[in-house]
Amino acid sequence: MKNSLQIGASRPRPVPGFRNTSRSSTVLAGLALALVGLPPASAWAQTIIVGGTTAIVGPTGYGGSTYVSPFTGMVADVLVTGPTAFLEIEDSLYLAGGLDTPQDPGGTAILVIDAGAQLQIDNPAGASFVGQGPGGTGTVTVTGPGSTWTNLGGLQIGVYGTGTLTITDSGQVTAVQGIGIGVETGGNGTITVTGAGAALASSAQIQVGIAGTGTLTIAQGGKASSAGPLDAIGAGAGGTGTVT
Hints:
Strand content: 35-45%
Radius of gyration: 17 Å
Strand order of the largest sheet: 1-2-5-8-11-14-17-20-23
Number of strands: 23
Order of helices and strands: EHEEEEEEEEEEEEEEEEEEEEEE
């Protein structure tokens, strides 16, 4: 099943199982709840488009966090696009798994922030988790001048699953509480920062290959920086880190 939901740029289309409303925050919060409530065996494909609007996702009622593709077999695409698009998530964000426990298997989650759009994760004690569950695949692309992903907490890429973050064409990604790439045993994380103006920044440490496999690639004028302690490569037992 393939459904699409466009928010902000035009009237939302009805989507089975969701409350249809013109209020972006309600639609997105309802979407998060709907994803939480789907059975594990559901083969669901969902596209969310946030364009030309401000949308706020509050606590979903399931631990306060927002989940995209938390079950095996789920496929969800999130597109935040355009210079007036701003998506704010008030707690943590999980892409591909981690619903009941951190090691719950995940599906496939794709997040794109482009054309000057902004995504902000508010909770300083939380984080964004990309590729959270075993077997889960999370992919994030931040591209274009003015496109930003701001994490007031941490950022973890490839926790127990596979996580990929690509920052290109002047896209900007920041994490106040540190960045981990290849976090747990079996986790595989990759961050690529490429092109003039593309930047990855942390106010704490950047760790590459904590207990999993981590790769950080900086190319063609991209930049990565941290204000924390000396960055760690292959920091934990069994961890493998590569920086190029």
